[in-house]
């Protein structure tokens, strides 16, 4: 990759990364489709099976994507991720938008794999171009993953009304094409810096002084720290992803139990997910990334996981009151970011 020509300004890499992540955050917008699917006869469990399958595919393919990135380079991998993600949504739309198996295979399996292929690219490329601001750039690179959900949810729901006016099938196809297009445009800036490149005033010695070490895969798997980090991220990310999957369904039930009409409860819950949660999630990715540069990775994770547990427990009592629901969505979204 040393022969790759650098972009004129490394901040264009950030622009491309955000464009990609706006689409890769498609999984966060899943909740906007669940009410229509339930009306079509799906059970709540079936909606969560698709969501969970997408997340599992995302996570598993990311492991392979790291190797593919080295072999094929970031741009090709990004293009492949966009194609696979877009294809998954188009398949779901063309082969039965309310058919469980079509949606499970299209959005859950194929779409999840596409997200996994593309997700590693903007993070890896961004960190190579910004070795002096790794926390900040990682946050910026993935901010679109959180912000994107707001636009996709509102476009399909209350603002754009795509589901109501065009139906689920057409909405899936439109989203598949849009996801692929944004990722392909963002891929234009996905290239590694030349070998030996560094920003002005930055020296690699400054980072090695912090005690960082390089391990092979086999060496890493023999360290207890790897399994501790894996456990922390599995538990904390699992809790956050569970919140995303239920951020609309659970508040709807809580609000209806509190006396709100179904349509009103759905609108309030949709706003909590699409606006408050998504905005806070995107901001959290940026600000926590910057905080980790200042506070250190370990301290930042301790603060996030500790407070997140409190917020999740409190959310069960907050979801039935609109302003408390919005506050809970902000707190959970910001921390999970």
Which key terms come to mind for this protein?
77% helix, mainly alpha, 2 domains, 337 residues, Growth Hormone, Chain: A
Characterize the structure shown.
77% of the residues lie in helices and 0% in strands. It has 337 residues and is mainly α. The chain folds into two domains: 190 residues, MFS general substrate transporter like domains (Growth Hormone, Chain: A, Up-down Bundle), CATH 1.20.1250; 116 residues, no CATH class.
Give the strand tally. 0
CATH class identity of the largest domain: Mainly Alpha
**Structural class assignment:** mainly alpha
Shape: globular
Quick recap of the structure?
By secondary structure, the protein is an all-alpha fold.
Mind sketching the topology for me?
Blueprint: H1 11-24, H2 34-39, H3 44-72, H4 74-94, H5 100-129, H6 134-156, H7 162-166, H8 168-187, H9 205-208, H10 217-221, H11 224-246, H12 249-257, H13 262-295, H14 297-318, H15 322-336
């Amino acid at each position: 990759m040393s022969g790759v020509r650098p972009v004129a300004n490394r901040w264009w890499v950030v622009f491309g990364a955000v464009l990609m992540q706006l689409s890769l955050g498609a999984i966060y917008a899943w909740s906007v489709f669940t009410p229509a699917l339930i009306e079509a006869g799906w059970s709540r469990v079936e909606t969560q099976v698709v969501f969970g399958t997408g997340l599992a595919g995302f996570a598993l393919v990311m492991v392979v994507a790291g190797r593919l990135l080295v072999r094929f380079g970031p741009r090709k991998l990004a293009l492949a991720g966009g194609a696979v993600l877009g294809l998954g949504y188009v398949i779901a739309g063309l082969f039965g938008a309310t058919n469980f198996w079509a949606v499970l295979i299209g959005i859950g399996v194929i779409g999840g794999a596409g997200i996994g292929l593309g997700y590693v690219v903007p993070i890896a490329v961004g960190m190579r171009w910004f070795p002096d601001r790794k926390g900040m750039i990682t946050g910026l690179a993935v901010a679109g993953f959180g912000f994107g959900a707001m636009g996709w949810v509102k476009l399909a729901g209350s603002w754009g009304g795509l589901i109501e006016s065009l139906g689920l099938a057409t909405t899936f196809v439109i989203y598949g094409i849009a996801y692929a297009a944004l990722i392909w445009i963002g891929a234009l800036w996905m290239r590694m810096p030349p070998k030996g490149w560094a920003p002005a005033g930055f020296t690699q010695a400054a980072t090695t002084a912090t005690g960082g070490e390089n391990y092979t895969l086999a060496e890493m798997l023999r360290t207890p720290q790897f399994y501790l980090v894996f456990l922390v991220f599995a538990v904390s990310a699992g809790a956050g992803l569970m919140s995303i999957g239920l951020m609309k369904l659970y508040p709807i039930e809580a609000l209806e139990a509190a006396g709100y009409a179904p349509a009103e409860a759905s609108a309030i819950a949709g706003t909590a997910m699409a606006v408050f949660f998504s905005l806070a999630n995107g901001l959290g990715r940026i600000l926590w990334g910057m905080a980790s540069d200042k506070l250190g990775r370990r301290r930042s994770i301790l603060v996030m996981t500790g407070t997140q547990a409190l917020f999740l427990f409190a959310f069960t009592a907050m979801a039935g009151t609109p302003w408390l629901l919005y506050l809970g969505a902000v707190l959970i979204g910001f921390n999970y970011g």
